[in-house]
Amino acid sequence: MTLAADRVVRTAGGHLVLDGVTVDCRAGATIGLLGPNGAGKSTLLRVLAGLLPAGGGVVTLDGAPLADLPRRVVARRLAVVEQQVDTQVDLSVLDVVRLGRIPHRRGWAGESAADTAAVRSALAATGLADRGGQSWHTLSGGERQRVQLARALAQEPRELLLDEPTNHLDIAHQLDLLHLVTTLPVTTVVALHDLNLAAMFCDHVVVLRAGRVMVAGAPVDVLTEDLIADVYGVRAVVSTEDGQLHVRFRRAGAR
Amino acid sequence: MTAAPTRARTGLRYAAGLVLLVASTAVVITIGPADIGVGEVWRTVLAHLGGGERVLSPIRDGIIWHLRLPRTLLAAVCGAGLAVCGVVLQSLLRNPLADPFVLGVSSGASTGAVVVVVLGVGGGAVSLSAGAFLGAVLAFTLVLVLSRLLGGQLDRVVLCGVAAMQLFSALTSFIVLTSADAETTRGVLFWLLGSLSSATWTEVGVCAAVLAVALAVCLGHGRTLDAFAFGEDAAASLGIRVARVRVVLLCATALLTAVLVSSSGAIGFVGLVLPHAARALAGAGHARLLPTSALGGAIFLVWVDTAARSALDPQEIPVGVLTSLIGVPAFVVVLYRTRSRR
Predict the structure, then answer these.
(1) How buried is A70 (Cβ within 10 angstroms: 0-12 exposed, 13-18 middle, 19+ buried)?
(2) 3-state secondary structure at position A192
(3) Axis-axis angle for helices B69-92, B201-220 (nearest 10)
(4) What are the backbone angles phi and psi of residue A24, rounded to the nearest 5°?
(5) A76 contacts in chain B (CB < 8 Å)
(6) What residue ranges do the domains of chain B occupy?
(7) Is B149 exposed, middle or buried (CB count within 10 Å of its CB: 0-12, 13-18, 19+)?
(8) CB contact under 8 A, A102 and B238
């Protein structure tokens, strides 16, 4: 038990977005959040990150309510990569990654050796070692995503929350990114659309629909043809080859 | 922040900026109808600080010590303060077009000033500056309360500020047009456009003290402001207590702006353009950006005010008019740059 949500409720505009969601993250595991658009994946991630307060229920970090912990302490434990962030400020890749050290720095002190090392290894891990000087505004969507991941890694978190991190990435970078975050010694919660990627990289998946957990468990147990038809309303063929689960979709109207 | 300069080089830059500011002050004091040399300025200042004999006639001494020196120092303080407020608000509100007046402070001040001067509220016991300050604080409080009621996010703050600006500008126009005679209108108009001509040592002291406090608060939040680059959520996930920082920095900048506006009127565009110029020079990191903006704003306004009082001598141009004449083309460049990024 590291990060956990217990019967979390969240309303927005009188509408229940999360309706009693319980998620428990095993240390070091990769947890996938699945579900159609509007199921509450992003909201759940933001509540888990402490960016949105839970209207009911509680989010805990090592058993302590997240809302009671100082923000700075939380930021040293838990890093977030949100979808599609942008800035007006003219920053280099290095500047953005350095932001990740803010929770670790104190007072007027300059950058410490630990700061420099964390930034360097975050850049290296995301394949950006030689891109530090490039301007954020000249980066493609996928490159920006990787820079944000590098910034999150520079925080040296033990919990990493990612909201559809593979958006904008080509297939090679999708595989690289998920391989990287799943092999890091951190607990990862990742919202995903791609069921095959979820099956490949997640230890545990949580399927949300209309703010409720429909089913949770190992991908092989959860991702069945019936569930996909039920949750997403599409017909699919699920097969297992070489111990790997594959989901193939049928065209709408095909028999 | 590209190619981060070393600490020594940054220190050298600040030293150069300070020397330039002091030299500018000494030089502009010699400019004007009464012919005075730099040496005379130094000796007079030293004499007043207790380090020597007064060498000039009382009139020339008074011109330096009671007219030109406080005016130049007030220009430096206002320029520095407006530029710092501009930097902080542009970063916090994530809006490159934000300036110190975006929170409705200047329009509130103008309404306060005309209520005192034109309507005679306070019966002469309340000065124009005090009225302006009260108006500014009232307008800012209104913006803060209104934006809190609307959810408190920073985009709401901008919208409420713009609304307050419109409201108080309309009130000011209404009062001036319905109640003021031609002479009062001219006087009020001159003040509204920004003028340092009535600078006194008291005003210099008050403004400098508030600037020192506000600058210290902002510098203390330098890294916090960096964290706002990707918005409030990103800042929160980097460990920033967003709601608290928002209130502290908005109040610090609004109070500083209110104090500056009540002694000098609404000098426009310094707070909008100088931060952009300083960013080009010092990069986006606030630890360097804030001092650079303060120095740049001070030097800029010292020279523009000198031009304003001497270009059409003996007639004086309101300094706000001149900063805008320079500021508008720069504003267009800012707009163009933000456009080309999208």
Answers:
(1) exposed
(2) coil
(3) 30
(4) -125, 125
(5) 239
(6) 24-341
(7) exposed
(8) yes
Provide CB contacts within 8 A for B123, sequence distance 6+. Answer: none
Q: C-alpha angle B80/B83/B85, rounded to 5°?
A: 105
pTM, whole model, 2 decimals?
Answer: 0.89
User: Which residues of chain A are at the B interface, by a Cβ-Cβ cutoff of 8 Å?
Assistant: 46, 49-51, 70-76, 78-80, 82, 85-92, 94-96, 99-100, 102-103, 105, 110, 133, 135, 137, 155
* Predicted confidence pLDDT, tens digits, chain B (342 residues): 444 456 778 888 899 999 999 999 989 988 888 788 888 888 888 888 887 777 778 888 888 888 899 999 999 999 999 999 999 999 998 888 888 888 888 889 889 988 888 887 776 667 888 888 899 899 989 998 998 888 777 778 888 999 999 999 999 989 888 887 888 877 777 778 888 888 899 999 999 999 999 999 999 999 999 999 999 999 999 999 998 998 899 999 989 998 998 888 888 888 988 998 888 888 889 999 999 999 999 999 999 999 998 888 788 888 988 888 877 786 677 667 655 544
The structure tokens listed for B170 are 């309309």
Q: Does domain B24-341 have CATH number 1.10.287.80?
A: no
What does the CA dihedral B58, B60, B66, B71 come to, rounded to 10 degrees?
180
C-alpha distances in Å from residue A168, one per residue of A86, A140, A165, A248, B134: 14, 9, 8, 22, 52
Pairing of strands A30-34, A204-209: parallel
Cβ–Cβ of B227/A99 closer than 8 Å?
yes
Q: Inspect the interface and report whether the beta carbons of A100 and B238 lie closer than 8 Å.
A: yes
- For tokens 């010694």, name the residue: A185
In whole angstroms, what is the distance from residue B266 CA to residue B109 CA?
Answer: 8
